[in-house]
Structure formats: structure tokens, C-alpha cells
Design goal:
Elements: H1 2-22, H2 29-49, H3 55-77, H4 84-102
Helix pairs in contact: 1-2, 1-3, 3-4
Family: Belongs to the drug/metabolite transporter (DMT) superfamily. Small multidrug resistance (SMR) (TC 2.A.7.1) family. Gdx/SugE subfamily.
InterPro entries: EmrE-like (IPR037185), Small_drug/metabolite_transptr (IPR000390), Small_multidrug_res (IPR045324)
Transmembrane segments: 27-46, 58-79, 85-103
């Protein structure tokens, strides 16, 4: 169940990052409220995942999902620049996530 919590927490990190961009520096009320709400739920799920996963693994996977997901959302929905180097960098992050998951001691403590 810890990995499910972690996956959902990572996906919600993407959501709060999107709303943070939409908040225009926390100057727009509803995107700001959404940012904070999704942050709270994301952090809560991360903390539940950390009950059964090593801190380093959980945190790297959470931030990796958020980073790669935010990159994808930025390109797909916000018109951010897409280049081969940026795609390669995102693939490296994904490779790191897989390695963390497969590494001895990375699944549970």
C-alpha cells in the first residue's frame, strides 16, 4: 500500500505544481487555494508511504514523479519548450526512479 500512497502523492505533486503556476505567484485566490490543498494531501500521502519505505527512496520517487510529470504538463498544456536534451534529462530521472525501486533495500525497511 505504501507504493500506492507514494504514486498518488507524486501525481498530486504534479497537480499542485500546475496550480502554483496558475496562481501567478499566489496572487490569484482559487489557484492558490488549490495549490495549498493539493500540497497538504500530497505531503500527507508521502508521510504515510514513509511509514513503510526508506525515507530516501520515498522522497526521491516522490520528487521524481513530480519533476517528470510537471515537465510533461508544462510541455503539453503550458506551451513550454521541448527539446531532445530536456527529454533525455527526464528519461534519466525516470531511469533513476526505476533503479531506486529495484535497488536492494529500496522497497522497504
Amino acid at each position: 500500500m505504501a507504493w500506492v500512497y507514494l504514486l498518488i502523492a507524486g501525481l498530486l505533486e504534479i497537480v499542485w505544481a500546475y496550480f502554483m503556476k496558475q496562481s501567478d505567484g499566489f496572487t490569484r485566490l482559487w489557484p492558490s487555494v488549490a495549490t495549498i490543498g493539493f500540497m497538504i494531501v500530497s505531503f500527507a500521502l508521502l508521510s504515510l508511504a514513509m511509514k513503510n519505505l526508506p525515507m530516501g527512496t520515498a522522497y526521491v520517487v516522490w520528487t521524481g514523479i513530480g519533476a517528470v510529470g510537471a515537465f510533461a504538463v508544462g510541455v503539453m498544456f503550458l506551451g513550454e519548450h521541448l527539446s531532445p536534451m530536456r527529454v533525455f534529462a527526464a528519461l534519466l530521472v525516470l531511469a533513476g526512479l526505476v533503479i531506486f525501486k529495484l535497488a536492494p533495500g529500496g522497497a522497504a525497511h
